[in-house]
Amino acid sequence: MPAAADAYLCGPPAFLTDVAAALVEAGLPADRIHTEIFGPEPGLTPGISAKPNRAPHPPAGAPGDGRRMSFARSGLTVPWPTGCNSLLDLAETCDVPARWSCRTGVCHNCETGLLSGEVHYSLDPIDPPAEGNVLICSTQPRTAVTLDL
């Protein structure tokens, strides 16, 4: 293999690791190997198939004095803390399992059932969620809220 060659690999992570190692062993400098992951992503199902690190809990520090925020499946109700950016941020702070990816309301991975209450979007979603759902990555409560989390 010519040392001046470039290798472009596309595939799942294990394939990329194995083929890149074989190319280096064959004499191709590692900086001439370019990779792109292509294939299935890990599942986005925390709280369903993944075990949470900690049980859901109130945020550390003094309790907030805002609207009541309830995570129905987690059995947790806490006051909305001052300075919290989104319902997703609060869920993460409380170790409530929640799916997400983009944090801007584009991908809909964070779409969650809104069981009660009203929210407003800090960033208007390009495509609104299904009726009765909210994108928790870009919403804050207008009223007390209960989420299906």
Topology:
Layout (H helix, E strand, L loop, with lengths): L6 E5 L1 H13 L7 E5 L30 E4 L4 E4 L7 H7 L17 E6 L2 E3 L11 E3 L3 E3 L3 E3 L2
Parallel strand pairs: 1-2, 3-9
Antiparallel strand pairs: 3-4, 5-7, 5-9, 6-8
Characterize this entry briefly.
This protein has 149 residues and is α/β, with parallel strands linked by helices.
Structural commentary:
19% of the residues are buried. The chain contains two helices and nine strands. It is 13% helix and 24% strand. The longest helix has 13 residues, at 13-25. The mean pLDDT is 87. A hairpin with a 4-residue loop joins strand 3 and strand 4 (76-79). By secondary structure, the chain is α/β, with parallel strands linked by helices. The chain has a five-stranded mixed β-sheet with strand order 4-3-9-5-7, with no helix packed on it. Strands 1-2 form a two-stranded parallel ribbon. A two-stranded antiparallel ribbon has the order 6-8. The chain has two domains: 7-37, no CATH class; 68-147, Ubiquitin-like (UB roll) (Roll).
